[in-house]
Design brief:
Elements lengths: L23 H36 L3 H4 L1
Length: about 70
């Protein structure tokens, strides 16, 4: 069964989750959307990691309170 995450709440009208391969075009559209959302989450994590590295290098020993 093809499972949609919460971020893609509304299924396209012609998409059948029990048989996702019935319409390959819609399935690929949903897959592309999911991949895009995943890349956004990855990039957000990278930005937060960079900010945390910078804060740690600036604050030093007080990084737990300041960052």
């Amino acid at each position: 069964m093809f499972c949609l995450p919460n971020c893609y709440t509304k299924n396209p009208d012609d998409f059948d989750p029990s048989n996702p391969y019935n319409d390959p075009e819609v399935m690929l559209e949903i897959r592309e959307h999911l991949v895009r959302e995943k890349w956004i989450q990855i990039e957000k994590a990278k930005i937060i990691r960079e900010k945390l590295k910078w804060c740690y290098s600036v604050e030093g020993i007080n990084h737990l309170q300041k960052c």
